[in-house]
Design goal:
single chain; 349 residues; alpha+beta; Alpha-lytic protease prodomain-like; Alpha-Beta Plaits; 2 domains; 4 strands; 62% helix; disordered N terminus
C-alpha cells in the first residue's frame, strides 16, 4: 500500500524581546570586562615578567576576540527568519562556539611555546607582590562573570552565552593557577615553577577548547539530540489518544533556542480531514508547550494498514481485520525507528 502523507507545520512564536535584551546585555558586559581583564593582565606581565602571567594575558587576548564573535552572534541570532534564511540564524551559535574553542586551542599552544622557551633559557621575575594582586583581582572578576554568563545562557537558552561563560570560567581558573604559581615562587624561590605552572594552565585550557570545538561540530552536523527526542515523546504521550496507533521516524535538530522536530504518526485511514487536522493541532500545541514555543514541527500523517490491527486500540473500528493483541508503547527507542509492524516482522528500515 502506498502511504499518503499530510503535513502539519507549527510555526513558533517570535522570541521574546525581553530574552533578546538580556542576551545582548550579557554579551556586551562580557566584551567590556574582557577588554578590562586584558589590560590588567598585560600590565601584570610587564610588571612581573612572569611566563605564567603572560599565559593568562594571552588567554585574555583570545577571550576578547571570542567575546566579540559571541556578541556579533547574539545580535545575528536575534534576527527573525527571512527568505534567505527560512530556519533563522540560530546555527551561527555553533560557528561562534567553534571559533571560540579553536582560539582557546591556539592560545594554549602559544602559552606552551613561551613557557618552554623560559624553561630552556631561564627567566627573571620581579615585583611578584604586585602581580599577585593583579592576577587575584582578575580571577575573582572573571569567576563572577563566568557564572553569570552560564546562568544567563541557560535561562535564555543561548549556547553562545553558555560557551562564553565556560571560557570566562576557564580564564578565572587560569588566573587561579597562575596565582598559586606566583605564590609558590615567592615562598620557595624556585623560579622554574613559573613556566611549569604556565604549561599546566595551557593544558587545562586546551581541554576546554577541545570540548567547545566538539560541541560546535555536533551542532553543525546535526548529531542526535537525545534530550529533544525524549522530551518530544513525553509530550506526545501526555495527549495520546487510542487513535494514535504508531509513532516512528522521529528526528530533531537545533538552531539557537529553536528546535526543529519531525516524525510520522499513524492514524486510522478512514479518518475525515477535519479530525486529522484537530489531532495535528493537539500534538503541535503539546510539543510547543514542552519547549516554550521555541519549536517548528513537521508532522507526517500515515494511514493505517491491516498489519497494524493487532496494535490498534480503537474499540469500534469499522474496518478491523484482526484482533487487538499488544499495546504499542511510544518510547524513544521505537519512535526513532521504522513503523512498529515492520520492526516486529524484522523488515529493515
Amino acid at each position: 500500500m502506498v502511504k499518503q502523507q499530510q503535513g502539519s507545520f507549527h510555526k513558533p512564536k517570535d522570541p521574546q524581546p525581553l530574552l533578546q535584551r538580556v542576551r545582548l546585555r550579557a554579551a556586551w558586559l562580557s566584551f567590556g570586562i574582557g577588554i578590562l581583564m586584558l589590560l590588567m593582565k598585560m600590565g601584570g606581565y610587564i610588571i612581573t615578567n612572569s611566563a605564567a602571567v603572560l599565559s593568562d594575558a594571552l588567554e585574555s587576548v583570545v577571550h576578547v576576540i571570542a567575546t566579540g564573535i559571541a556578541l556579533y552572534s547574539t545580535v545575528l541570532i536575534a534576527r527573525p527568519a527571512d527568505r534567505r534564511h527560512p530556519y533563522g540564524y540560530g546555527k551561527v551559535e555553533y560557528f561562534s562556539a567553534g571559533a571560540e574553542g579553536a582560539l582557546i586551542v591556539a592560545a594554549a599552544i602559544a602559552i606552551c611555546y613561551e613557557a618552554t622557551i623560559d624553561l630552556a633559557r631561564g627567566n627573571q621575575l620581579k615585583d611578584i607582590d604586585v602581580g599577585v594582586w593583579i592576577v587575584a583581582a582578575a580571577g575573582g572578576i572573571n569567576l563572577l562573570l563566568g557564572y553569570y554568563l552560564i546562568r544567563t545562557g541557560k535561562r535564555t537558552r543561548s549556547l553562545v552565552l553558555e560557551a562564553d561563560g565556560k571560557h570566562v570560567l576557564t580564564d578565572s581558573f587560569t588566573s587561579i593557577g597562575v596565582l598559586v604559581g606566583l605564590l609558590l615562587v615567592k615562598l620557595t624561590g624556585v623560579v622554574i615553577l613559573d613556566p611549569l605552572f604556565a604549561i599546566a594552565v595551557a593544558l587545562n585550557i586546551l581541554f576546554t577548547g577541545y570540548h567547545l570545538v566538539r560541541q560546535s561540530l555536533d551542532g553543525l552536523m546535526n548529531t542526535v539530540d537525545t534530550e529533544t527526542l525524549e522530551r518530544t515523546v513525553v509530550a506526545v504521550n501526555k495527549v495520546r489518544e487510542p487513535v494514535m496507533i504508531d509513532l516512528h521516524r522521529l528526528r530533531a535538530w537545533r538552531g539557537g533556542a529553536q528546535r526543529f522536530i519531525d516524525f510520522h504518526l499513524t492514524l486510522p485511514r478512514y479518518f475525515p480531514l477535519d479530525r486529522t487536522h484537530e489531532l495535528q493541532h493537539q500534538l503541535s500545541d503539546a510539543i510547543a508547550a514542552e519547549f516554550h514555543d521555541h519549536t517548528e514541527l513537521l508532522l507526517h500523517l500515515d494511514p493505517c494498514n491491516n498489519a497494524l490491527c493487532c496494535f490498534c486500540e480503537v474499540a469500534d473500528c469499522p474496518i478491523r481485520h484482526g484482533e487487538f493483541a499488544e499495546k504499542n508503547e511510544f518510547t524513544i527507542t521505537g519512535a526513532v525507528d521504522i513503523p512498529v509492524y515492520q520492526r516486529k516482522e524484522g523488515i529493515a528500515g
